[in-house]
What does this fold into?
Amino acid sequence: MDHFRWIAPFYDRLFGFLEPGRLAELLAPRPSDRLLDVGGGTGRVAQHFRATVREVCVVDLSRGMLDQARAKAGLRACRGRVERLPFADGSFQRIIAVDSFHHFQDHPQAAVELVRVLAPGGRLVVEEPNIERWPVKLIALAEALALMRSRFYSPSDLARLFQAAGARVTLYDDDALNYWAVVEK
It folds into this structure.
């Protein structure tokens, strides 16, 4: 069931994204980079990087969310599963996964696939709600009740997934609810 299809037309207004701030700092995008936003939905985050990189591609499974992304100038939208990305090895110098990793079906395979499409010397930044915090536990419960099949990872458990895929991981946990995993190849 595509839970996001129903809220796609309202998603950006409900879950606005102010400024990329910490995400942009950790991502360190360059003008020559190709950026992939995995599970990027409407492109609400990716749109902030259009002027700082060569190309921005949003990949998501929800057709409704991608319709919203396609309406934004400068974003390429592609439907697909993160566990089987339709891109060649090393295609992207920068990858982001903002508040999406917990929605993927096969997390170990997702980590392998993200490292595969990351270019050597590239950087992937995963921003996720920290399940070790009580408000996030309530969000996880709500998503379970909505039958979303989400699986939230602690920072250390997420790092282990990407390390098993052959990447280096640095964790940043300086926010009230979210943490960032910077994955490098």
Q: What stands out?
A: The mean pLDDT is 89. The chain has one domain: 29-184. The longest helix spans residues 3-14.
